[in-house]
Amino acid sequence: MPLNFIDNQSIASASGRTLPVIDPSDGQPYDEIPRSDGRDIDAAVQAARRCFEGPWGKLNAAERGRLLIALSHKIAEHANELTAIEQRDCGKPTKQAAADATALARYFEFYAGACDKLHGDTLPYQNGYSVLTWREPHGVTGHVIPWNYPMQIFGRSVGGALAAGNVCVVKPSEDACLSLIRVAQLAAEVGFPAGAINIVTGYGHEVGDALARHAGIDHISFTGSPKVGTLIQQAAAERHCPVTLELGGKSPQIVFADADLDAAIPVIINAIVQNAGQTCSAGSRVLIERGIYGQLIGRLGKAFEALRVGPAAMDLDVGPLIRHTQQQRVWDFLSDAQAAGIATIAQGHVVDEAPETGFYQAPVLLADVPVAHRVAQEEVFGPVLSAMPFDDEEHAVQLANATRFGLVAGVWTRDGARQFRLARRVKSGQVFVNNYGAGGGVELPFGGYKSSGHGREKGFEALYGFTTLKTVAIRHG
Ligand code: NAD
């Protein structure tokens, strides 16, 4: 049974209690994880603090970088093993799980190189002074991770925090944590000192809450739902602990009549079916200029009908959803849409080999979705694409910005000036023009406007969030 990883030791929860690990492809339990509580978080925070004030704090930036690159190489060596773990735990088709393992190695490679490039500044001030700024690590950072991309989100969050000189206590999702326990073991094998990376598993309302409230946590990086993001921020506010929130999205793909539809269609499809639509930056709305609305809906519909859904190991277009409650959530949205008279234009199909006990959902294309309907406003977190027409550029911008989210947007047009106008006016943390990367790009700062969160992870920018700035003014005459 996989155990917590604290102080470079594998240990059971203090309570001795466990939770089952369920395979989404057949809905059956196949392992157990510790059901931890505040005592386990406390042990992890103490181990992390000892490490920060001891061996980790003594490393210089280049030495930290060498450890991170060693971990990157180790992850690459174990990519097949990590792919297999993630595939079964999350129900990911092989190519998706393999892409996540590759991205994890790449995050550690990127942040390894960044360790000794992060520096402060010297500032002009009064005569007789020298003023400089230092970028200092927060200390012990807490990382609360969701189930949809455990390896990728660990890579961007923990990779950035370590590069900036912090040590980490990680609370993965109770629905998917096995790969992260393994990565922490691999980190110990390449020489990370005890306490640098600690993994504590269990329920969010128990162990996640304990992490958010722990006085020894100096910064929290939370990736998950807006609702839990609010709870985390409230808990952190009690002790003025800085927080980065990476929350949900309702990201639009905006397609103008002059777009290259041959290029756009496969990207639009992938952006909603990747990871069975369980992606914060899924392109879950497609806004189409009225002149090509019928044509594009027809072509998207044909592509949807060809999509096949099945067990992760079959490596089809779409795997299962993470759990039964997620499946029910998607059914709920679809039955509300049906009750509102929203037309289902097309859907993919679940293959015969898929066990009935698995959590499958065929991708669905909905057309003429009213902007105020909840399927156009809220995260479905399943493979459901809502299409709606727009009349002109002004209308497109208005629809694009008409949700409480602002994570990513795609703009499809050959008009160069319009590309810039749209990129300026759409309120989202990333805008892709004539392409779309669901969360794409290790190097690219990522994060939200509005209810999609605040702060940025990924890229070099993340390192500013994982450090605090000290100004030193020296009067020397
Ligand atoms: P969730 O908010 O339910 O859970 C996220 C994490 O928070 C889990 O580890 C969970 O155990 C923990 N948690 C739950 N309740 C808690 C509490 N009271 N206190 C502390 N921790 C608690 O989200 P989820 O269902 O795992 O993931 C899906 C959500 O994550 C979606 O909204 C999605 O958009 C979002 N997400 C955002 C990004 C991004 O980068 N913006 C990336 C991936 C997922």
In short:
This protein has about 475 residues and is an alpha/beta fold.
Walkthrough of the structure:
This protein has 477 residues and is α/β, with parallel strands linked by helices. It folds into two domains: 4-247 and 454-474, 3-Layer(aba) Sandwich (Aldehyde Dehydrogenase, Chain A, domain 1); 252-441, Aldehyde Dehydrogenase, Chain A, domain 2 (3-Layer(aba) Sandwich). Helices cover 39% and strands 21% of the residues. The chain is built from 16 helices and 22 strands. The strands form six sheets. The protein has a seven-stranded mixed beta sheet with strand order 15-17-18-13-12-19-20, with helices on both faces. A hairpin with a 5-residue loop joins strand 5 (122-123) and strand 6 (129-137). Helix 3 (61-77) runs antiparallel to helix 5 (94-114) and helix 10 crosses helix 11. The longest helix has 21 residues, at 94-114. The protein is globular and about 70 Å long. The model has no long low-confidence stretch (mean pLDDT 98). It binds nicotinamide-adenine-dinucleotide. Nicotinamide-adenine-dinucleotide binds next to helix 8 and helix 9.
